[in-house]
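Attaching the record inline, Q. Sequence:
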Amino acid sequence: MKTQKLKIVIIDDQPERSKGWARQIQGIVGERAEVLALELEDVRTAVKAVFNRRKEAANGFSVVEELHTKSLFDDVDVLVLDFDLRNMDTGDSHDWTTGTEVAVAARAFTKVKFIMLVNSLGANRFDLDMSKASQSKADLDIGGAQIDNPGLWRTENFEQYRPWFWPPVLDWSQKFERAVNWVQENYDKPIMPILGLNTGDASYEESINKELWIELNIDPQKGTFRDLVKLTQYLPPRDKEALENSVSQSARVAAAILLSWLEKLIIPSQETLIDAPHLAYLMPWLLLDPKDIDCWNATANLLDPFAAFKPEVSNYRYSELLTSRPVFYRRKIESDPKLGEPEGFNYNELPDLVFSEDLSQFIEFEFAKPYPCGLKCADDQRYVADHVKLPSSDVHKIADVSYEPAAKFAL
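Structure, as predicted:
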């Protein structure tokens, strides 16, 4: 049976630019997706429709299906939103809006799956602090200079600039709907227990750092998905009130908030949950062949890094339903005596590698630059490639990327 194509829609007030983006993206994704760049009048219509839905919802409509205004976004898998939208003529007192405003309204009142915001943090910026993403109202913030980066749309064999925090966009958009259904089924249950995480005694293997779980703004033991939507700072008060009687649409908002929390804070901290490359770096004896660089880089496969590890590691995999990439319970692995460091393990035989957060692959230590990230975690040291020393280049040259704040390289 033929698989239905995904739909990628670009919303920008500069149609010629968005058409260029569409051609570039289409060349990368091929037959897997249809990429549409809207004309300016269609952009205005689509944006206005989203804000009209917000008004209708505020007047008592309880679910998206009851809203009279049709929205193009309901069947969009990936919505690419330019941050700076002008001349939108949305019917308000001004003719300018931001992609952030559209993202929030679209998440609350449409069925869009994945929202990508362009140029909100700069056209070609890498956040060394690694905390800016968690403050965003979009699923991913991307610089316009990286829209045509194949690594943004593919899942493995990264050979150029490709920040590790980028999710596999097309696969993640498909997974979102399953996460929404799961949230709706568990809507009035306490969140942390069904996540398999703990926010109390720090001695628990599944315990989450207090400074991380408070970002959800709910009671750590009793807070439900209903509470998550009610108390979130993601939505303005009027939107939360409009969604109170719609479990189906609130579940979409709750799923987006939860997944963002896991993707942008919990997993990057690499403490309770840890992804495959960072697990390999922490416990190299878990690799099938720790002397082989190819084995190390196999852990950066966003869909299936398991072939690089001993089979027992898979026993500690965290739910794939809620993460864009395979991750593991770090402390459970550390406490399993069968997976402990073998006696006589020879570190001198290992290649001198570090994981490059900006290339999504392991590189020789001599070609890397260490820095302390700004995440709330015990081990904050991360690495990016040193473009001056790196013996290769490509169309997405890291020399053109702005690594900020640059002062972190001096710490």
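The longest helix spans residues 247-269. The CA atoms of residues 329 and 374 lie 22 Å apart.

More tomorrow.
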